[in-house]
Amino acid sequence: MLNNLNFLFMIMLLFSSIFVISSNNWLASWFGLEINMMAFIPLIYTKKNNLTNEVLIKYFIIQAIGSSTFLFTNLINSLHLFTWEMSSSSPQGTLLILIPLMLKLGLAPLQFWFISIIEGLNWFHCFLLLTWQKIGPLFLMFYLHPSLYMILFMASLSLIISPIAIFNQISLRKIFAYSSINHLSWMLIASLMSKNMVLFYFGLYSLMLLPLTYIFSLYHIYFYNNLIHINSLPLLNFMLISILSLGGLPPLLGFLPKWIIFEFLLNHNLFSTALLLIFSSLFILFIYFHIIFNAAIAYFMLNKWLFFLNKNYPINFIFISLFTILNIFTLLLFNLY
Predict the structure, then answer these.
(1) CA gyration radius, the chain
(2) For residues 162 and 182, what is the distance between their CA atoms, to the nearest angstrom?
(3) Which residue in 284, 89, 30, 329 sits closest to 178, CA to CA?
(4) Contact indicator for 171, 119 with CB cutoff of 8 Å
């Protein structure tokens, strides 16, 4: 439960990101990023131990490096163009400003800090880091209007590195961190279409990730061997649908934005990028199937006699039914699209 002080920091966190994306010059956006960092650090400080202190120090140092580099590169750009306006930037200035934003986002190959600190966070803080904390730097990147080749290069790096690094991971937090990097690649490519498409993808990603982090937090699941804690078949089915939807398995809800982006790439003859997206998503989906398989085996090993419509779980069954209907409704959206 959030106390009054944490509630204040949460409000600061929300409004700082809104301030960043609504800014019209680089200096104001830098100020918003600083407020965002100073609001997030007290939130993740939950108890006094070495791991938490290490996470705080790492996060502060990396964000401070990113912010100072962001300010310095914008200062150079403003001296060259005599303005702090976001609409003005030279090609060299765009490239220099992109680097600290990539660091703040944890995009490959600058993802080392992101993977390192997520292991010391609980699932609520992980959800914030994987979703809300991406908004400011992500939209600042779009305001730069990078070229097609810049976007494809950044997206391709993350699409290649994230599936390779995710193999042999036993930590679910690291798996979802690498998955987040993979989804960021999709959002970068979605920016070639429109900002509305990015918002649509980001909203669906957050919606699909929220129930998973809640379940993992509720049952204290952080590694593969913790999946044995799930003792409810309806909850197991709910988790199965959520993970497959997050992986973009058709015809579930998560497949819709990926299909739209894929069709856009084909229409613009970007076949190599489309092929890379397919293979990268298949690797990530394979890992998701591995999570589901481990959870199912653990459950069925402990429960020999199972009935799906168990009267002890009516509320869970309602949630599962609603979420299933939502995913199946995606088929109708395909026809409308």
Answers:
(1) 21
(2) 6
(3) 284
(4) yes
Closest to 172 in 3D by CA, of 55, 54, 288: 288
Percent pLDDT > 70 in the chain is 84
Q: Cβ neighbours of residue 6 under 8 Å, at least 6 residues apart?
A: 42, 43
User: C-alpha angle with apex 181: 145 to 275, nearest 5 degrees?
Assistant: 80
- Cβ–Cβ under 8 Å, residues 96 and 130: no
Residue 329 backbone class (left: φ over 0; alpha: ψ -120 to 50; beta: rest): alpha
pTM of the predicted model as reported, rounded to 2 decimal places: 0.85
**Contact call for residues 104 and 71 (beta carbons, < 8 A):** no
Each domain of the chain, given as residue ranges in start order, spans 1-146, 147-337
Contacts of 67 (CB under 8 A, 6+ apart): 30, 33, 34, 37, 100, 104
Alpha helices in the chain (DSSP H): 4-21, 26-44, 50-81, 91-105, 112-118, 123-130, 132-143, 148-166, 172-190, 195-218, 233-247, 255-267, 271-302, 314-328, 330-336
Q: Point out the least confidently predicted range of 199-208, 222-231, 316-325.
A: 316-325
Split at pLDDT 50, 70, 90, the class of 305 is very low
